[in-house]
Specification:
This protein is mainly beta. It has one domain: Porin, CATH 2.40.160. Helices cover 5% and strands 51% of the residues. It is built from 1 helix and 16 strands.
Length: 352
């Protein structure tokens, strides 16, 4: 990690020495989405109507040494507890050089490959509003982090390597000149790696790995019985109108020092995901996906319940508007036996 830090510091220093920039450009993009969702079975909530929007403000320019910079900030509506007012979040500043790119990200810049398998017509269904409780690998975008990306074209097969480091477990976006930031109660730092490659035309392979250090707190033992680590290997292959995605995740959650092996202590989660999409024509696409997740307890004799999610989706695009429907079956929600839920989402999305 020290070598990576020195490389990043060197790139930032070289940029600072030639800070004069040509006039930058600013743009605003975003989406507006309206949905209606129904649930049945072991669900505790009512049907819901919602409208969501996200505006992304982007700016970029070129320095007089040929380096480029890009800045982005998202304007999202707050939770219902905040009255729906808009909040600034997911901000980043990226400086690209011939030696690679350095990114400073506030709750942004995902490196996780867990959703890469997704070829669904509408959405990665276990990443939507319904909380089915599936455990997925940790993503660095949940923390304030700094990243380094290898230059485009440096490695064969369009291979890129990215590494990110979050020095604290704090999950609140920070302003400039911040220091002495409060650490997370259970996490002191997070490191994530991502490798992407295209070995043959139509086939994309992605691997990501994350590890987290235990709490940096003198009142808490640092010798965790098991420190958190998680990773994903994913592949997506496109041939004509068909796209097939496969993914496998592994998550080993943190277990504090002295944790007793018992029926309620999870040692690991394993997820197997598949998604098949078909473009019927330029406007209509359909898909099917299945995601299974199994937990393994520290007590080997403990009986666990596998969670399974299957979804059939369709989307129809008319210019800048997309109409979509997703019908999903969740089995053993939260890894609880017979906690089954059926959900249907109707969505209208407009991009601008």
């Amino acid at each position: 990690m020290n070598k990576i830090t020195k490389i990043i510091a060197s790139l930032l220093a070289s940029t600072a020495l030639t800070f004069s920039a040509f006039a930058g450009e600013m743009s605003v993009t975003g989406t507006a989405k309206a949905t209606y969702g129904t649930v049945s079975g072991q669900a505790n909530g009512d049907n819901g109507v919602g409208v969501a929007n996200e505006l992304k403000f982007s700016a970029g320019g070129e320095l007089d040494n040929g380096f480029t910079w890009d800045y982005a900030l998202a304007l999202d509506p707050a939770s219902t507890a905040g009255g729906g007012s808009a909040l600034n979040d997911d901000s980043k500043l990226v400086v690209t050089t011939p030696y690679g790119a350095v990114a400073i990200c506030m709750l942004d810049c995902s490196l996780g490959a867990a959703g890469v398998f997704n070829s669904n017509a509408y959405a990665w269904i276990t990443d939507t509003g319904y909380g089915e409780g599936k455990v997925v690998p940790t993503n660095i975008s949940g923390y304030n982090n700094i990243q380094y990306h290898t230059p485009s074209g440096l490695l064969p097969f369009d291979t890129t390597f990215k590494v990110a480091y979050a020095g604290t477990g704090n999950t609140v976006s920070q302003g400039t000149n911040s220091s002495n930031v409060a650490n997370g109660a259970l996490i002191s730092s997070t490191t994530q790696y991502r490798i992407s490659t295209v070995p043959v035309d139509g086939l994309a392979l992605d691997l990501s790995y994350t590890d987290q250090a235990g709490p940096n707190n003198p009142t808490i033992s640092l010798s965790d019985e098991q420190q958190h680590e998680s990773g994903t290997i994913a592949a997506k292959y496109t041939m004509g109108a068909f796209t097939v995605g496969l993914g496998r995740d592994y998550v080993a959650p943190r277990a504090a020092d002295g944790t007793a092996a018992g029926a309620t202590t999870v040692e690991s989660y394993t997820n197997n995901n598949i998604s098949i999409g078909f473009a019927v024509n330029d406007a209509l696409s359909i898909s099917y996906s299945d995601e299974s997740s199994a937990s393994e307890m520290q007590t080997s004799t403990t009986v666990t319940q596998d969670m399974d999610t299957s979804s059939v989706q369709a989307a129809y695009t008319m210019g800048g508007m997309t109409l979509a429907v997703a019908h999903t079956q969740y089995d053993n929600v939260g890894y609880v036996a017979n906690a089954d839920v059926t959900e249907t989402i109707l969505a209208v999305t407009v991009g601008f």
